[in-house]
Structure formats: structure tokens, C-alpha cells
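Protein in question quoted in full.
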Amino acid sequence: MTENAFSSPCTPPCLVRPGARTWRCAPPPAEVRDFHAVLPGHSPTPLAELPSLAAELRVGRVFVKDESSRLGLPAFKVLGASWAVHRVLAERAASGEEPGPVTLVTATDGNHGRAVARTARLLGQRAHVFVPQGVHPRAVAAIAAERATVTEVAGAYDETVRLAAEAAAARPDAVLVQDTAWAGYERIPGWIVEGYSTLCAEIDEQLTEGGHVAGPDLVAVPVGVGSLAQAVVTHYRSRPSGRAPALLSVEPEAAACVLESLGLGEPVSVSTGETTMAGLNCGTPSSIAWPFLRDGLDAAVAVTDLDSAVAADDLAALGVSSGPCGAASLAGVRVVLTGADGEERRTALGLDASSVVVLLSTEGPAANPQATEQHRTRGK
């Protein structure tokens, strides 16, 4: 798709291109779901229906995929980390490498690093996690509590990723398990994306169990580097026939690298600012995610911290515990469907009063202590 396929920007920034629903790709491997199904403590996370949001958004039904507790952690990230580490260790065993423990190295804004550290601990491996400036001390402590070595970096996320990659390359017993890709480093991030496919498969099954077999009409997904969005695009664009839903990416205005890249038609890096949506505070799209986002996303929007805070409050009142990153999905859909030019975008995305909307709430409040404290300080 080209830049011309988008409508003109709105406020907050938003781009729409409905032609993306015709694009198709290969499906994720089926064995990922089977792998997660046998992990200790595994169960599908809830898909909550919220009729009051459907009335507000003037659609038929709204569901929220609640990832506030996934395999004992407050975010979805462990799906990707567990599958990728499984593949790494299986490959090392098959190649005849030394069977001793390896050090799993990663950079994180919080959730991915803790997921890698938890996986390493459960499997008897070591973990070394790099965290950028601005990650809350309690989030850092949660990673350390998984028996990981933690290195705090006085820089932004992209710089932290670079330092983690250098540290992994310097040790023969270390493997970088990063959830963003770049030229020359793509296999392991690809496995992480595959791991996220379980979340989408669960949504299909849960909708069917709830009497809606046709699938969603719109799926909204929070975006950092774009790996989860890549998994969502892969899932819904790999079906050879049937109705394809519209797919919406949501980012913080302070770190809208995917929105900026889509508008320019090529991947670019942006300078990130401060945001309570810490897990989305990323300045560069993943290299393997970019082609899927470029060709498979119908719309992209950037939202403010206040937008996500209000959405988190509203979800909490409806019984869904969501952190600012997870609540960004609701904030983004509100902008797209009810903001300026909302009727035009609603029509372009093929939505009406009978449409089914799925919001991915990717984390609970425990995943982002800093945002929770700021929220309390405001007296809400």
C-alpha cells in the first residue's frame, strides 16, 4: 500500500486505508498453540463482553481480551518469550552444543524482560536483562526477583537494545532473545511473534463459544515495535477466504514510530518522549514486522496519556483490569470511531451498528507501577 491510500491526518494523528483487507500472507505454525497448552498453569485469558462500550461506539458487540494475568505474569509477553526460548534451546540441543545453561540476554521496557527472566528461571537457564531510563524501580525489582542480572541504562529503549545485543555477542554462552528485529537478527524475533499467535487463536475460539462464528469486524492492538501487531496481521490475513476484519494499531503520541512510518511509506525511527504507556515507548519498528504492518493494517492512530488513563478508568469500572498500554486499544478506537471525521472513517473501515469489535488489553496495572502511581496522584 502507498501513502496515497491513507486519508488525511486528524487530531489526534490517524491514518486509514481500507484496501489492506485484501492482502494475504502465510499462517503461523499450528504447533505453537499446542506448546502453550501444556505449560504448567496455562489457561486462556478472558474475553470479556462489554455492552456499554458497544452502545458508546455504536457497534453491535465489543469484547476485550484481558491479558492482565498470563501464565502468572501481568502481560501477554510470556507467550512469545516461552516459545522463542523453547526454540532456542531445542536448536542448541539438536546441534550438539554443550548442554550447560545459557544466558538469555534481552532489553526491555519491563514486560518482555520479566517474561524472558521467568522463562529462564523455570528452565534452569540464566537471564541478563537491560532496562532503559524511565522504567519504574518496582518493575526492575520484579525482573531481578526472577533471579535475572539487571543492567540499567541511562538512555532510551533503542540504545538499550543496542547494548544488550553487544553484550550477548561478547559471550559464547549467551543468546539474545529480543522482541524486535533488524537486518541480520530476525529468526528469534520471528519465533517471538509466532508465540503471540496463541492469543489470536483463543479469541477465535472464545467468540465461537459465545455464538459469534464469523469473527471480529475490527481488532485494535497496542503497538510498540510492532511484534504483536505483526502476529495479529498474520493471523487475520492468512485466511484464504471469508471475511477479513479491519486491523487498527494504537501508539502513544510520544512514540508513534509505526504511524510515522506508514505515513511516509517506509520504516523510520522517531525520537521518543515521556509517556505512561511505557511498554509502547519505542522509536523504531521491527524490521520483520514492518512489511506486515505496511501491507496488512487498515488504520493507525496515536493517543495521549490522558486518553489511555481515561480508558483504563472506564475499563476498571466495567471489571477489566488494564494498564495504560492495554487501555490504549479502547482509547484508539474512540478516536477513530467517535472523533472528528469518525463517520467517514467508520464507513471506510466497513463498520456499522452490527459490527463486532475486539480490543486487546495487553497488560494489567501491575505491569506498569509508574503509571499506577501517577494515576493515584491525580486523585482518580
